[in-house]
Design a protein that fits this description.
single chain, alpha+beta, Rossmann fold, nine-stranded mixed sheet, 8 helices, 13 strands, 30% helix, binds nicotinamide-adenine-dinucleotide
């Protein structure tokens, strides 16, 4: 669909992951450049005000040198063998599931906030349900939880329910992340913790208006989202006064607003582009290679 739209000369916002292979991602990046159109991949989680605050704190040097980056993205909607979605089927969703579907958001955000790039990684993936009961009719995402007793088709599964990755970001920074779709009680628990030589930050998508800031020699802080309390670079990502939540829906608003505003201008894009989507496919490819080989794999760094 994205390729057809590009060939028709349209500006394109594409959902993540950009494609199901590096090769297809490269083709889209090249085609978008050739057509000279605006292109965006929907890594909308970058657009939470507190995510931009973490980035602004890092840019201002408040974190110091980043030593450790760690986190999780946990969900529970595919916990049972009766849970089904097109993502489970590699022929529809690609060879990776948890890491592609939600891990890609995590790596995109970790690189965006830290300004660092994952340079090598070691991955371990696990498919707990080697077979799932596929409903005979189609089921939209998250709707599986509302199904009653059904006629199911026993279907083999080879996409991962869980993934764990340890990684390097350059010579000194170290990190780890786990992504799961089988963790009871965790709905969309995107958690990231960044530890620097001066201070630390931690943020959890399920409490998006709160940012934990950790200090060694003074009390820790919990900053509550309020535009007047944010760094100037983060302020335009919060439209409402403090005390009025800005959540997941608002991240799309912030992304679409910047995308549409950029059309017809020569302005630098303030949103993730197709080459950022390709970047995630490159990391995913390394994850699959590493898991297959039970070994560390280098991740090529982007040219920009
Ligand atoms: N950025 C985010 O936070 C975020 C969140 C959820 C999903 N996504 C992405 O959005 C995409 C869709 O995921 P979803 O969870 O909404 O899936 P979904 O299964 O809930 O919905 C997909 C919809 O597309 C329709 N569809 C399928 N093939 C079609 C076709 N050929 N023509 C027209 N319509 C078609 C289906 O009928 C269905 O209504 C995926 O790429 C997913 O990774 C992104």
């Amino acid at each position: 669909m994205a390729k057809d739209a590009l060939q028709a000369g349209k500006h394109v916002i594409c959902e993540k992951p950009l494609a199901t292979s590096v090769q297809d991602g490269r083709e889209l990046v090249a085609l978008a450049a050739q057509q000279g159109v605006r292109n965006c991949v929907c890594h909308n989680l970058r657009f939470y005000p507190m995510v931009q605050q973490m980035r602004a704190l890092r840019e201002a040097g408040d974190l110091g040198e980043i030593l450790v980056v760690q986190g999780t993205y946990f969900q529970d909607w595919l916990l049972y063998e009766t849970d089904w979605n097109w993502r489970v089927d590699a022929s529809a969703g690609g060879p990776s599931r948890s890491m592609a579907d939600i891990g890609s958001h995590w790596f995109d955000l970790a690189e965006h906030v830290t300004g660092l790039r994952v340079s090598s990684l070691c991955a371990d993936l696990q498919t707990f349900h080697r077979a799932r009961k596929r409903p005979k009719h189609s089921v939209e995402t998250f709707a599986n939880k509302l199904l009653g007793p059904e006629d199911y088709i026993e279907t083999a599964v080879d996409t991962e329910d869980f993934g764990a990755v340890i990684f390097h970001m350059g010579a000194r920074t170290r990190g780890s992340v786990t992504a799961s779709q089988v963790s009871a009680g965790r709905k969309n628990r995107f958690n990231i913790e960044i530890y620097g030589t001066r201070s630390s930050v931690a943020w959890n998508q399920e409490r998006p208006d709160e940012l934990w800031v950790g200090h060694r020699n003074t009390g820790n802080e919990i900053l509550i989202k309020d535009p007047s309390l944010l760094k100037p670079q983060a302020r335009s990502y919060a439209d409402l006064p403090g005390g009025h939540s800005e959540g997941y829906d608002d991240t799309f608003k912030q992304l679409f607003r910047r995308f549409y505003a950029s059309i017809g201008t020569g302005d630098a894009p303030e949103y993730p582009q197709f080459d950022d989507g390709l970047r995630q496919l490159t990391i995913l490819n390394a994850v699959l290679q590493s898991h297959g080989a039970r070994a560390w794999v280098d991740v090529p760094t982007p040219s920009k």
